[in-house]
Design a protein that fits this description.
Blueprint: E1 3-20, E2 26-44, E3 49-53, H1 66-73, E4 79-83, H2 94-108, H3 124-129, E5 133-137, E6 141-144, E7 152-157, H4 164-169, H5 188-196, H6 203-209, H7 212-222, E8 227-230, E9 237-241, H8 244-255, E10 260-265
Parallel strand pairs: 3-4
Antiparallel strand pairs: 1-2, 2-4, 2-5, 5-6, 7-9, 7-10, 8-9
Bound molecules: 4-diphosphocytidyl-2-C-methyl-D-erythritol 2-phosphate and adenosine-5'-diphosphate.
The site of adenosine-5'-diphosphate has 18 residues, from helix 1 and helix 2.
Family: Belongs to the GHMP kinase family. IspE subfamily.
Function: Catalyzes the phosphorylation of the position 2 hydroxy group of 4-diphosphocytidyl-2C-methyl-D-erythritol.
Enzyme class: transferase
Amino acid sequence: MSITETAPAKLNLALHVTGRRDDGYHLLDSLVAFTVLGDRVRLEPGPLALRIDGPFAADLSTDGNLCLRAARLAGADAAITLTKSLPVASGIGGGSADAAAVLRGLARMGHALPARPERLGSDVPVCLSSAPARMQGAGEILTPLPPLPGLSVVLANPGIALSTPQVFAALDRRDNPGLPAIPCFTGLADLATWLAGTRNDLEPAALTLAPVIGQVLDGLRTTGAAFARMSGSGATCFGLYATADTARIAANALKQHGWWAVATELAPPLMPR
Ligand SMILES: C[C@@](CO)(OP(=O)(O)O)[C@H](O)COP(=O)(O)OP(=O)(O)OC[C@H]1O[C@@H](n2ccc(N)nc2=O)[C@H](O)[C@@H]1O
Ligand SMILES: Nc1ncnc2c1ncn2[C@@H]1O[C@H](COP(=O)(O)OP(=O)(O)O)[C@@H](O)[C@H]1O
């Protein structure tokens, strides 16, 4: 019997850096959402093993892979197949999403979830439920939010992998104010208006390391995004579009630059809270 779990891409719709802990980790305040597009993991009974296929398989090694580390943390064996559809090291939590998907799959096979999933990565706790949340602390403090409207989204990445620690190290300030109160959003208009009053504090730092991110953001805006921003530590950017058709046309236009670009939607929650 095999078990399949999707590993949705994580979007930091807003990401404020509010401080730094003594161990060097940064304090965050983030509105996190997930997309229908994601990686996929398949688990089958057997000794612990990992096989990777899919469009971005060549960018990843099985050694030290978060899928294997997740299974080891759960103390479980399984033959894992990862289908890698998300670009690696790109600010949309692919590795954390894969680790969380393995943990969810192992839970369905009867294994307990590990007590401290954040040991695998700061984004793993939020990826476990893959549901909209306010994420604080270094990623371990989660406040579930009501479902977000099922909006059309374009994800675009110029084909460069950014190192998360390097982006944090390039920050000018680490003591920014937190997010304003998060209302219950009803559609694109009120979400875009609220987002316009927030920031991704990692975006200016990432832009200094990879100025091409500015071109990606311009590309999303000129193809009709009502709102565009970088996710996480980059370099993937997202645009929110009024319709699935405009998102699809925008993604096709952005691909002409040689960038990875895909139209998808904000996802409904994967696991009951
Ligand atoms: C920035 C965020 C925002 O959601 O997303 P991504 O860009 O990774 O998608 C995450 O906090 C990243 O989470 P994750 O990628 O799991 O990072 P981790 O493996 O825990 O940490 C990698 C490194 O990033 C830095 N780091 C990470 C999280 C945090 N709150 N403060 C940090 O300073 C540390 O230098 C750490 O050693
Ligand atoms: N299954 C995995 N998918 C993606 N990255 C992984 C995986 N396992 C280990 N990694 C490593 O984790 C790092 C962060 O990758 P990823 O989670 O995709 O990016 P980000 O943290 O920017 O969202 C990469 O350097 C990558 O080599």
